[in-house]
Automatic annotation (TrEMBL):
<dbReference type="GO" id="GO:0045003">
    <property type="term" value="P:double-strand break repair via synthesis-dependent strand annealing"/>
</dbReference>
<keyword id="KW-0227">DNA damage</keyword>
<dbReference type="InterPro" id="IPR016467">
    <property type="entry name" value="DNA_recomb/repair_RecA-like"/>
</dbReference>
<dbReference type="GO" id="GO:0000400">
    <property type="term" value="F:four-way junction DNA binding"/>
</dbReference>
<dbReference type="InterPro" id="IPR020588">
    <property type="entry name" value="RecA_ATP-bd"/>
</dbReference>
<comment type="similarity">
    <text>Belongs to the RecA family. RAD51 subfamily.</text>
</comment>
<dbReference type="InterPro" id="IPR013632">
    <property type="entry name" value="Rad51_C"/>
</dbReference>
<keyword id="KW-0234">DNA repair</keyword>
<dbReference type="GO" id="GO:0005524">
    <property type="term" value="F:ATP binding"/>
</dbReference>
<protein>
    <recommendedName>
        <fullName>DNA repair protein</fullName>
    </recommendedName>
</protein>
<comment type="function">
    <text>Involved in the homologous recombination repair (HRR) pathway of double-stranded DNA, thought to repair chromosomal fragmentation, translocations and deletions.</text>
</comment>
<keyword id="KW-0547">Nucleotide-binding</keyword>
<dbReference type="GO" id="GO:0140664">
    <property type="term" value="F:ATP-dependent DNA damage sensor activity"/>
</dbReference>
<keyword id="KW-0233">DNA recombination</keyword>
<dbReference type="GO" id="GO:0071140">
    <property type="term" value="P:resolution of mitotic recombination intermediates"/>
</dbReference>
<dbReference type="Pfam" id="PF08423">
    <property type="entry name" value="Rad51"/>
</dbReference>
<dbReference type="Pfam" id="PF26169">
    <property type="entry name" value="HHH_XRCC3_RpoA"/>
</dbReference>
Length: 343
């Protein structure tokens, strides 16, 4: 939307343009204090700007995660879902990842975040009657190389994981041909991928799932502690691009995130109350996420046949359509499965 279309004084519009704010969605995702810092406007001017931006958003979808959380738009309760490929975990998520919004999956190294992301890249290729979206996935790597060997193992083991699917259907799917891999070493290449490559693949119907692994890597490496304002600006630009793609193409967006230590657990509202870690990037990023999940390694080991696995727990930290709950899970050759009655 053009800023001139808003019912604001030319002085406020000029300040917004000097601050290089590109959209009303960027405005509504910033606090009043941040807007004052960026624009140099008074508090009363900032309040006028926020009011006008919120009104414009109500008239012109797509919407932001913050607005959805405030209940200004229809619930995602009955929306499209992408199955995880496991009934136990799908039950926790009421069908799987919701389409059109950002889902964050955080956890410590080795928790199984990438394992679950790969599993979703295969699940999305199944038809709707088997929990998929009948399309491929775009997997954006920002730090580590793509785990191709593990993917190949998951593909070979699909008949074991997806016993609900006819073997003839599984054998007819060319899984590896429908996963598009992009390596982005800096924020510039990440933005190019989201503004050019991703829209092209989505518009052609070649992909229906976006995965970013991981969102914290670039923002942690490219900014120092005193660069928080520019980092937040880049985070908003990044999240706006993800929101736009998710909404326009009704696509689930999965962002894998790292975690940081929590020193005051009584104030840990961004992660599970029982954990000593919290997802990285703070409130600036948390306000852009619709669904926050965390995957934790537990101390117990479970066995099955000739396999053993450290027990994991997948927890819902927040989501507008889900209660705070969790399920135990384990990583097997065929992928991540929920574990019932692990006690």
């Amino acid at each position: 939307m053009n800023w001139d279309q808003l019912e604001l004084s030319p002085r406020i519009i000029a300040a917004v343009r000097r601050a290089k704010l590109q959209s009303v969605r960027e405005v509504v995702c910033l606090s009043s204090l941040d807007l004052q810092t960026l624009t140099g406007l008074s508090l009363s001017d900032v309040q006028q700007l926020l009011t006008a931006a919120a009104t414009a958003c109500r008239r012109h979808p797509p919407v932001t995660a913050l607005q959805l959380q405030r209940g200004e738009y229809p619930s995602i309760e009955s929306g499209l879902r992408l199955s995880v490929g496991c009934p136990v975990l799908d039950q926790l998520l009421r069908g799987g990842l919701p389409a059109g919004v950002i889902t964050e999956l955080s956890g410590e190294s080795g928790a199984g975040k990438t394992q679950l992301a790969l599993q979703l890249c295969l699940s999305v290729q199944y038809p709707a009657e088997h929990g998929g979206l009948n399309s491929g996935a775009l997997y954006i790597c920002t730090e580590d190389s793509f785990p191709i060997k593990r993917l190949q193992q998951l593909i070979r083991e699909q008949p074991s994981l997806r016993s609900d699917v006819p073997p003839s259907l599984i054998s007819s799917l060319h899984f590896s041909n429908n996963i598009y891999i992009e390596h982005t070493a800096d924020l510039g290449s990440l933005q190019v991928c989201l503004s050019r490559r991703a829209p092209l693949l989505l518009a052609q119907g070649l992909v229906r799932l976006l995965v970013v692994d991981s969102v914290a890597a670039l923002f942690r490496s490219e900014f120092q502690a005193d660069d928080w304002l520019e980092r937040n600006r880049q985070l908003l630009t990044f999240s706006s691009a993800l929101h736009r793609l998710g909404q326009e193409f009704t696509t689930p967006v999965l962002c894998i995130n790292q975690v940081t230590d929590v020193f005051n657990q009584s104030d840990n509202s961004l992660g599970p109350s029982s954990s000593s870690v919290s997802p990285a990037l703070g409130l600036a990023w948390a306000n852009q996420v619709m669904v926050r999940l965390i995957l934790r390694r537990l101390r117990e080991t479970v066995t099955r046949g000739d396999q053993s696995s450290i027990l994991r727990r997948l927890e819902v930290v927040f989501a507008p359509h889900l209660p705070r709950d969790g399920r135990d899970a384990a990583v097997w050759r065929e992928g991540i499965r929920g574990v019932l009655n692990s006690d």
